[in-house]
């Protein structure tokens, strides 16, 4: 069954594009153009994810979010906002948002995050101690990484980077997602900082093996997986 | 110190206090003297009336007897009497002869005379008169008044002046303290606002005096500052929204186009346009960050971190990029340095500075941290050409790029952001000569 997404966005062009893009990716999208309609739909509770614009006519995004959470609805919410300062972001996340994406965003970024939230919401919260992808294996307790039985020596940050990729195996992770998830920063580091880290990791993980596991996804980011 | 208003005020209070004490002592002295004089005059008058009565009753002989009685050893020691014949020769009394300075019938006067048998001259209050029979009578009393008054003044001054000095000092100190204390609250409010607590105000003490009026005026100004700040916040938020929404739409259209065209050249153009859109967005975002940081917005998101760890993390993040450029990134930090910072902005500022060095500098990049004179300083240094001192101001201007860098892709915001971030932390940014090279110092306050 297709995942249902509620898009609450007042800007028609953005809503149109996002909704079209998500539909093409196999989601069912309902759109609300203002906070009141959005809140009405959201309390229905049958959505897998809510994409919520922060600045809305009528009830604003934060108001909608507050009302949704007050109603006991735990649907994952990703906030879209033109306000990108750290304090705005923190305010959004402490008010019950699961993710916060600053405008302007790339659609692929939004798609990757929506997928992440839906999977996180659906999967059990089982504590995994060994992460696997193909013949790559990471033991979180022993802090050991092997590929096809051969040990891979990783720096602490490389370990965390690979752990993040393994946890999101077969999913596209964007550079900002890596920056947030691995380094806990939310700014644009300017140069190709993340790419250089990834290319070093790739050398350790893929060099000398026939099938590469770490793939670059053009215009989006990276994906760890068996399929090219 | 002598020019400080508080000191001058205290000095004025001290002097006035002392002057009033001195005036009081002098006044008391004068009034004591006057009192003594009028006592003497009264004594003389009583004596004179008594003696006239005995003259009326007993004639010269009776009067002489009375005079002798009154100048005897057992009577008031201050009494001066002389009964003399028509030519001034003594009949009875304790003066040897009629003093030439006393004219009979001329009322009371003050003179200095020797009494019989005494070796010291004494000030006395005397009155001479001629009796009906032609004899002369001098009635008087020693006025110890002057001497006693002076002695009393001396005694009083000896005790009172040190006391007055003490009280004057105390008054001056208390007055100065009172002013300082009254200024404490306005000062605290102004400092709090300068430190970012825009809601701080001077409490109203209900006194309606000049200092309370000053407090009200300060509050008015602070109110205005807060309003302007919140307007600025709204304006930047609005600007962010107004600029970002069209940018989002533009990005959306370009992304859409990228999925629809097949021509490799067109795809490349669209990718370039997307990259430019992202660059434009980054510039808008950074410019907004600078404006907000300069306005002191964001202090509410300060967190306590170990700066040594934080810098190590930043170095670790940028090291691969620096190494790919054929350079090295060294770290020169103490073991630990807890500090309260805007983690995100600090990292962004340092990232920009490292980026700048990669673009315009040369040699190893050193990320330093030290805590001296109570100030925390983070430095980014390299061994490149540096910036001549005369160009520092140009380099620090927002969107200001030095000529040789103008062709590059930088927006000229890196140093502005670093400066704004340093000022947000209560410090500032300094460009220096690393001889050779550039050293950028971010003072994160003390």
Structure in words:
Chain A: This is XRE family transcriptional regulator. The complex is a heterodimer of chains A (228) and B (446). Chain A is 40% helix and 22% strand. Chain A is α/β, with parallel strands linked by helices and 228 residues long. Chain A has two domains: 119 residues, Rossmann fold; 95 residues, Winged helix-like DNA-binding domain superfamily/Winged helix DNA-binding domain (Arc Repressor Mutant, subunit A, Orthogonal Bundle), CATH 1.10.10.10. The longest helix of chain A is centred in the middle third of the chain and has 16 residues. Chain B folds into three domains: 144 residues, 2-Layer Sandwich (Beta-Lactamase), CATH 3.30.450; 85 residues, Helix Hairpins (Orthogonal Bundle), CATH 1.10.287; 145 residues, Heat Shock Protein 90 (2-Layer Sandwich). Chain B is 56% helix and 16% strand. The two termini of chain B are 26 Å apart. Chains A and B meet through helix 1, helix 4 and helix 8 of A and helix 3, helix 4, helix 5 and helix 6 of B.
Write the layout of secondary structure elements.
The complex is a heterodimer of chains A (228) and B (446).
Chain A: E1 4-8, H1 12-24, E2 28-32, H2 35-42, E3 49-53, H3 61-70, E4 77-81, H4 86-94, E5 99-102, H5 107-122, E6 130-133, E7 136-139, E8 144-147, E9 150-152, H6 156-167, E10 172-174, H7 175-183, H8 193-206, E11 214-217, E12 221-224
Chain B: H1 5-70, E1 79-84, E2 90-93, E3 108-113, E4 122-130, E5 136-142, H2 145-194, H3 210-260, H4 264-294, E6 303-306, H5 307-324, E7 329-332, E8 338-341, H6 343-360, E9 365-372, E10 375-381, H7 392-396, H8 414-424, E11 428-433, E12 438-443
Parallel strand pairs in B: 7-9
Antiparallel strand pairs in B: 1-2, 1-5, 3-4, 4-5, 6-8, 9-10, 10-12, 11-12
Helix pairs in contact in B: 1-2, 2-3, 3-4, 4-8, 5-6, 6-8
């Amino acid at each position: 069954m297709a995942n249902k997404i509620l898009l609450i966005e007042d800007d028609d062009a953005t809503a149109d594009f996002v909704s079209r893009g998500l539909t093409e990716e196999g989601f069912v999208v309902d759109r609300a153009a203002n906070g009141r309609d959005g809140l009405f739909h959201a309390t229905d509770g049958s959505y897998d994810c809510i994409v919520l614009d922060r600045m809305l006519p009528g009830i604003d995004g934060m108001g909608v979010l507050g009302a949704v959470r007050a109603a006991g609805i735990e649907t994952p919410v990703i906030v879209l906002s033109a306000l990108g300062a750290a304090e705005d972001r923190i305010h959004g996340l402490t008010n019950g948002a699961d993710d916060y994406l600053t405008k302007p965003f790339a659609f692929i970024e939004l798609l990757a995050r929506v997928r992440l939230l839906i999977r996180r919401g659906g999967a059990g919260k089982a504590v995994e101690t060994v992460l696997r992808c193909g013949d790559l294996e990471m033991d979180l307790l022993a802090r050991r990484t092997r590929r096809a039985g051969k040990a891979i020596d990783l720096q602490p940050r490389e370990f965390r980077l690979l752990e993040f990729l393994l946890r999101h195996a077969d999913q596209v992770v964007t550079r900002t997602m890596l920056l947030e998830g691995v380094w806990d920063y939310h700014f644009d580091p300017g140069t190709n900082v993340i790419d250089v880290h990834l290319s070093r990791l790739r050398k350790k993980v893929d060099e000398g093996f026939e099938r590469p596991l770490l793939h670059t996804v053009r215009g989006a980011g990276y994906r760890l997986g068996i399929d090219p | 110190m002598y020019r400080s208003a508080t000191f001058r005020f205290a000095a004025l209070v001290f002097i006035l206090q002392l002057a009033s004490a001195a005036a009081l002592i002098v006044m008391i002295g004068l009034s004591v003297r006057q009192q003594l004089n009028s006592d003497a005059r009264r004594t003389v008058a009583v004596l004179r009336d008594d003696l006239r009565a005995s003259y009326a009753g007993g004639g010269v002989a009776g009067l002489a007897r009375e005079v002798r009685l009154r100048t005897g050893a057992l009577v008031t020691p201050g009494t001066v009497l002389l009964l003399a014949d028509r030519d001034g020769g003594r009949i009875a009394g304790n003066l040897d002869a009629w003093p030439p300075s006393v004219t009979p019938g001329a009322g009371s006067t003050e003179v200095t005379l020797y009494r019989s048998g005494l070796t010291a001259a004494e000030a006395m209050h005397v009155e001479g008169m001629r009796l009906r029979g032609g004899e002369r009578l001098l009635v008087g009393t020693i006025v110890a008044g002057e001497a006693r008054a002076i002695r009393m003044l001396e005694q009083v001054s000896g005790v009172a002046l040190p006391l007055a000095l003490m009280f004057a000092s105390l008054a001056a100190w208390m007055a100065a303290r009172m002013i300082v204390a009254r200024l404490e609250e306005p000062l605290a409010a102004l400092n709090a606002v300068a430190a970012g607590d825009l809601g701080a105000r001077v409490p109203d003490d209900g006194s309606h005096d000049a200092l309370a009026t000053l407090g009200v005026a300060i509050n008015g100004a602070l109110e205005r500052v807060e309003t302007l700040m919140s307007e600025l916040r709204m304006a930047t938020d609005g600007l962010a929204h107004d600029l970002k929404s069209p940018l989002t739409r533009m990005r959306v259209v370009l992304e859409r186009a990228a999925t629809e065209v097949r021509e490799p050249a067109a795809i490349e153009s669209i990718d370039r346009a997307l990259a430019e859109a992202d660059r434009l967005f980054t510039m808008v975002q950074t410019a907004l960050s600078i404006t907000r940081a300069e306005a002191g917005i964001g202090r509410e998101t300060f967190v306590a971190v170990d700066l040594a760890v934080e810098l190590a993390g930043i170095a670790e993040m940028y090291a691969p990029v620096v190494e790919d450029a054929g350079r090295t990134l060294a770290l020169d930090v103490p073991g630990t340095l807890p500090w309260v910072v805007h983690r995100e902005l600090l990292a962004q500022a340092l990232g920009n500075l490292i980026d700048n060095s990669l673009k315009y500098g040369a040699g190893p990049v050193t990320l330093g941290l030290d805590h001296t004179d109570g100030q925390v300083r983070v430095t980014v240094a390299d061994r490149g050409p540096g910036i001549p001192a005369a160009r520092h101001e140009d380099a620090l201007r927002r969107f200001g790029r030095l000529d040789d860098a103008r062709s590059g892709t930088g927006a000229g915001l890196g140093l502005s952001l670093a400066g704004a971030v340093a000022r947000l932390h209560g410090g500032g940014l300094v460009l220096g000569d690393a001889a050779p090279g550039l050293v950028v110092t971010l003072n994160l306050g003390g």
